[in-house]
Amino acid sequence: MQQSLVRIDGVSKHFGETTAVDNVSLDIGAGEFFALLGPSGCGKTTLMRLVAGFETPDSGSIVIDGVDMAGVPPNRRPVNMMFQSYALFPHMSVAANIGFGLKQAGMGKADIATRVADLLKLVQLEKLGGRKPDQLSGGQRQRVALARAIARRPKLLLLDEPLAALDRKLREETQFELMQLQRDLKIAFMVVTHDQDEAMAMAQRIAVMRAGQIEQLGGAREIYETPATTFVAQFIGEINLFAATVERGQVVRCAAPAFTCRLPEPMAAGTAVSLAVRPERIRLTRGEPAGGEVALSGQVMDSVYLGDVKVWRVRTDDGGLLRVSAVNSGNGSEDIRRGERVHLTFAESDIRILPR
Amino acid sequence: MSAGKPKPHRRKLALGQRVLLAVPFLWLLLFFAAPFLFVAKISLSQAVAQRPPYEPVFAWSESWNVFVEKLGQLSLSAYGLLFEDDLYLASYLGSLKLAALATLIGLCVAYPIALAMARAPRSWRPALIVLAIAPFWTSFLIRVYAWIVILKDEGLLNHLLLSLRLIDQPLQIYATDWAVLIGIVYSYMPFLILPIYNAIDRQEPQLVEAGRDLGATGLSAFWRITFPLSLPGVFAGALLMFIPAVGEFVVPDLLGGSDTLMIGRTLWNEFFANRDWPTASAVAVVMLLVLLVPLLLYERNEMRISETRR
Fold first, then answer.
1. pTM of the model
2. Sheet of A4-15: strands edge to edge?
3. Does some domain include residue A201?
4. Using CA atoms, how far apart are residues B90 and B92, in angstroms rounded to an integer?
5. How many residue pairs bridge chain A and chain B with CB atoms within 8 Å of each other?
6. Would the CB atoms of A75 and B207 count as touching at under 8 Å?
7. What is the per-residue pLDDT for B5?
8. Quick check: A341 pLDDT over 50?
9. Minimal Cα distance from A106: which residue of B?
């Protein structure tokens, strides 16, 4: 692991009665692409604003590059932020917007002009330096905001929902550009997003937040494959969750759909747990299944065609409801329709046992 | 870009839209253009000692030929008088000077108030706005009289300053230009506060944060972001104050001294003391023309802003 650039230690922030950030600790390495992921109101934006210096923590400390940030105003932090609304200065040209931070730093006019020209080139807006922000498209504004935020070469760049205002097509394109830029600049990025795809695509590590706390911190694969809680399991992608109980002999019994599986680690009998299975790990077949450790049968309630994938909802004979998905591979096995009787199979290793 | 700005395209207005547009036009025609023409007409006639105190050049019943013939009788003598007698020029300049000074002082007072209002907690703001316009709930005249009570030699202000031993002689404020300035600044304060407040309140709060994030101190973020973005409100407020302040009659009449020269007062004297309606009308016409200048400048500035916003 790289050397730690940002160390957030036991930070809490309250607004009146509500706790926005609740005793959060995390480290961000130099040059790391880090994402704070969570639903709105989970405290991720507040945490970012605490790092930027717009809010003061009620307790805990934030250390950036070895310096405790307590009492350090935003203008003295080695951190820059790209705002969700972009917050471009409407009375200044694009070039003046990008050069704002350089001018504040006391850089000479000629140097500012050179640096601004370089930045405009970097974000492919060479010819638009003289425009005003409201003469730009949404995508162009996003680039200006980005150029302005990296102009001062911060050690850490904070990005608040950087892609939220873009349309879908542009979002994906920009996502790759951001990743490329981050690799080139070797600046640590901290992205706040509510979009799991965005976080998973871009970030090396993701902190999933809920109610002011970090539920799980890890790489995209770790968070998706081995969610730590039912919240993480449900927030990241689609998942089937079944209520189950631990029985003697390291067996877990699920009522609907009815099946049992072995516990990988011993747990006290009678413990209530949730079993989680990803829809794409379940195999759906018309005929008798060829194998698989858990086998169920039922009737297709709905089938949804999404182009690249197909999704079914299946009601098992014992009243359980499962979501199943399969990639549209074109071999015809996907055209199972509503009302058909089907068999469902999945491996025990695809089941995650989560505390309830 | 070399493509140039797109031309604003003209589109045909539906009947309903035309009717809607006609309403303000008719209003202006009826309550501004028509009275102004009457005044302009009087200003071109001769003063006589009778009722009405001027010799109408035209009568409404005359035929076209007589009308054309009488055009020659129109007299600019009332306007000539404005240049002959220094009183008028001095009154115009006095008015412009006092109005400009009052607007300047007013801005210095109103801006911090508006800024504080815009930065106050959101739940306080309706109450603060009500407070800002509360003076309007009392008669203007009564409020100006109240200032006499405060400012006169044995008034509240002098009493306070004397008892605090800050002065040992009462200050002569009442019946001077200072009293007029204070009165005008006070009377038009809401007209300044509200547009400035609006211009600051409308700004996205993240703009200042972005400035701070990019290395600006609180003060330089204000000067480089908040202040320039509030200028449209400053101009609008200044205009709303300056124009009526130039023609102000009540404040100089009640608070000013006999040597306070303001055009509103001179106008009143011409109409009611001298009963010289043509000269009074000429004074009014020239005043309107003078006031058109800042209005047109403002209008052009607005056009330029909306042009760049496109």
1. 0.83
2. A18-29, A4-15, A59-64, A67-68
3. yes
4. 6
5. 62
6. no
7. 46
8. yes
9. B215
What whole-number distance in Å separates Cα of residue B28 and Cα of residue B110? 31
Secondary structure (3-state) at A154: coil
Extract the tokens encoding B3: 């493509």
Same domain, A194 and A321: no
Average pLDDT in the B278-305 region?
84
Binning chain B into helix, strand and coil, the percentages to the nearest 5 are 75, 0, 25
Task: Assign B270 a pLDDT band (cuts: 50, 70, 90).
Answer: confident
Task: Please report, for the domain that includes residue A98, its CATH number.
Answer: 3.40.50.300
At A138, list the tokens. Answer: 């949404």
User: Are A257 and A221 members of one domain?
Assistant: no
Task: Give alpha helix (H) positions in chain A.
Answer: 44-52, 94-104, 109-122, 138-150, 168-185, 196-202, 220-225, 230-235
What pLDDT is attached to residue A216?
A: 96
Structure tokens at B91: 């009154």
Q: What is the mean pLDDT of residues A167-185?
A: 90
Question: Which residue in chain B is spatially nearest to A128 when comparing CA positions?
Answer: B1
Three-class DSSP category at B264: helix
Query: Is residue A184 domain-shared with residue A57, that is, in the same domain?
Result: yes
Which residues of chain B have a CB within 8 Å of the CB of A81?
209-210, 213
Gap between the Cα atoms of A330 and A332, Å rounded: 6
Which of A75, A84, A144 is the best mutation test for B, with the most CBs of B within 10 A?
A75
Judging by beta carbons within 10 Å of its beta carbon (0-12, 13-18, 19+), is residue B222 exposed, middle or buried?
A: middle
Answer with the one of A228, A250, A269 that is the final residue of a domain.
Answer: A228
DSSP state of A73: -
Residues A211 and A270 occupy one common structural domain: no
Task: Let me know whether A203 and A336 are in one domain.
Answer: no
Whether residues A68 and A165 fall in one domain: yes
Q: Is the Cβ–Cβ distance between B268 and B249 less than 8 Å?
A: yes
**CA B110, CA B186: separation in Å to the nearest integer?**
10
Residue A121 within a domain: yes
pLDDT band, very low/low/confident/very high, at B310 (cuts 50, 70, 90): very low
pLDDT: which is higher, B17 or B219: B219
**Given pLDDT bands bounded at 50, 70 and 90, which one contains residue B51?**
low
> What are the tens digits of pLDDT across the range A62-93?
999 999 999 999 999 999 999 999 999 999 99
CA B150, B156, B162: angle at the middle one, nearest 5? 135
Q: What is the pLDDT of residue B2?
A: 42
Domain holding A12, by residue range, is 4-228
Tell me which DSSP letter residue B285 carries.
H
Same domain, A218 and A151: yes
The shortest CB-CB distance from B217 to any of A75, A100, A149 is to: A75
Name the average pLDDT for chain A.
Answer: 92
User: What mean pLDDT is predicted for residues B159-168?
Assistant: 89
pLDDT tier for residue B81 given thresholds of 50, 70 and 90: confident
A171 within domain boundaries: yes
Of A228, A252, A272, which residue sits at a domain end? Answer: A228
Mark yes or no for CB contact B213/A90 under 8 Å. Answer: no
Residue A298 counted as domain residue: yes
Give the phi and the psi of residue B111 in degrees, each rounded to 5: -60, -50
Give me the pLDDT at residue B1, please: 38
Backbone Cα Rg of chain A: 25
Closest listed residue to residue B301, CA positions, set B234, B227, B223 = B234
Higher per-residue pLDDT: B271 or B204 = B204
pLDDT at A318: 87
Residue A321 has pLDDT above 60, yes or no: yes
Hey, CA dihedral for A253, A254, A255, A257, is it positive or negative?
Answer: negative
Domain count, chain A: 2
- Before B232, cis peptide (omega within 30)? no
Question: Based on the domain organization, do A154 and A70 belong to the same domain?
Answer: yes
